[in-house]
């Protein structure tokens, strides 16, 4: 009997070598060591934890540590990650966000529930909440003044090309109208202190505005997120008729290149350094007094090397008024920007973030943004 079990253990381990089984079935992480022996997929430790939330349909065990029965091994052999993908991801809409191991838990959890529990990708009718081109519902929105979250009605309309929200539930005029062409949405569980926290940004008069929203129900929040992606996808398909789907997908929503605190000084470099929250969003470096502010206190355009932008560790000699020791100098055609980081790790991360942007050649549409920043009052 014991040898049978050893034999089963060896057989299931060998299955990890089969095509498709070398990466987590749900997030793509390399070398999964867990498996759902009811669904027949190999998953990483983190996704195995999320499978435990759907215990009615998925039962997980360790490939390396748990005992395996012959019938369980046979199921793993007959299904496996590739066959499961063909079944559970049969019709994933192009715009739908498929998370990787780097994404937040909410996106991964809802992806797993959508696949196996709700079977959303086996039947297009189940995709209605995010693919219909119209969505209406209530979200908790952070108030600008006191930081309190208040219930607000939101409407996403592809036909009108907008996302809008209403202060009073029966109000006719929206409090804010956000055009789909400048909209972005990114989950911010750490910054907002809630797993379902979503930061939505849009441009108004070329400046970035932030709103922070959440819904208690994770599915609702992820449906809003994918609804925004769908609306952006359809907008971009019309705006850029020649572009391929793979060109458009990275433009639907984006995460920030880097966020965190640094100290900064003003243009004269004499007024002392102040601690600010910084967000690097594509080529826009924005700073805020509070990470959850609605408006940036300032935005700096970071161009490319060809346009004489560069980043250097340290501060010019005789710089005064900073408290943090790890300086960064950004040289632009017009002036120098001075920053100070709290740790050498932060300094390294920020320099590499700036380097990423500076090393990237400017895209045609970015020249328009650069020109706007230049002529900003
Ligand atoms: Zn995973």
From TrEMBL:
Domain Arf-GAP: 9-131
PROSITE patterns per record: ARFGAP, PH_DOMAIN
Major subcellular site: cytoplasm
GO cellular component terms attached to this protein's record: cytoplasm; plasma membrane
Domain (PH): residue spans on this chain: 132-233, 255-359
Keyword Zinc-finger: yes
Name of this chain's protein: ArfGAP with dual PH domains 1
Species in which this protein is naturally found: Gasterosteus aculeatus aculeatus (three-spined stickleback)
Lineage: Eukaryota, Metazoa, Chordata, Craniata, Vertebrata
């Amino acid at each position: 009997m014991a040898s049978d079990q050893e034999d089963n253990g060896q057989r299931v381990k060998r299955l990890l070598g089969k095509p498709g089984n070398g990466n987590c079935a749900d997030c793509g992480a390399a070398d999964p060591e867990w498996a759902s022996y009811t669904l027949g997929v190999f998953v990483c430790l983190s996704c195995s934890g999320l499978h435990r939330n759907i215990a009615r349909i998925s039962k997980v065990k360790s490939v390396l540590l748990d005992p395996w029965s012959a019938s369980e091994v046979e199921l793993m052999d007959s299904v496996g990650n590739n066959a499961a993908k063909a079944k559970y991801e049969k019709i994933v809409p192009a715009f739908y966000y498929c998370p990787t191991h780097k994404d937040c838990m909410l996106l991964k959890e809802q992806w797993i529930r959508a696949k196996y529990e709700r079977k959303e990708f086996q039947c297009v009718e189940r995709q209605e909440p995010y693919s219909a081109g119209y969505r209406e519902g209530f979200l908790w929105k952070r108030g600008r003044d006191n930081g309190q979250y208040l219930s607000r009605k939101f409407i996403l309309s592809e036909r009108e090309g907008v996302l809008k929200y209403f202060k009073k539930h029966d109000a006719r005029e929206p409090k804010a109208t956000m055009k789909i062409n400048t909209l972005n949405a990114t989950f911010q569980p750490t910054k907002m202190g809630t797993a379902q926290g979503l930061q939505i940004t849009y441009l108004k008069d070329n400046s970035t505005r932030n709103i922070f929203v959440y819904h208690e129900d994770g599915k609702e929040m992820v449906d809003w997120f994918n609804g925004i992606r769908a609306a952006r996808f359809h907008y971009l398909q019309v705006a850029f008729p020649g572009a391929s789907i793979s060109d458009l997908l990275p433009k639907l929503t984006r995460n920030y290149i880097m966020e965190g605190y640094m100290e900064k000084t003003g243009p004269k470099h004499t007024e002392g350094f102040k601690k600010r929250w910084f967000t690097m969003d594509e080529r826009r470096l924005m700073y805020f007094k509070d990470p959850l502010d609605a408006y940036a206190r300032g935005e700096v355009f970071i161009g490319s090397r060809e346009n004489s932008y560069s980043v250097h560790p340290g501060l010019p000699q005789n710089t005064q008024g900073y408290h943090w020791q790890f300086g960064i100098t950004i040289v632009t055609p017009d002036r120098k920007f001075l920053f100070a980081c709290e740790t050498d790790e932060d300094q390294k991360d920020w320099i590499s973030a700036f380097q990423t942007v500076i090393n990237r050649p400017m895209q045609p549409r970015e020249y328009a943004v650069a020109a706007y920043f230049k002529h900003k009052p």
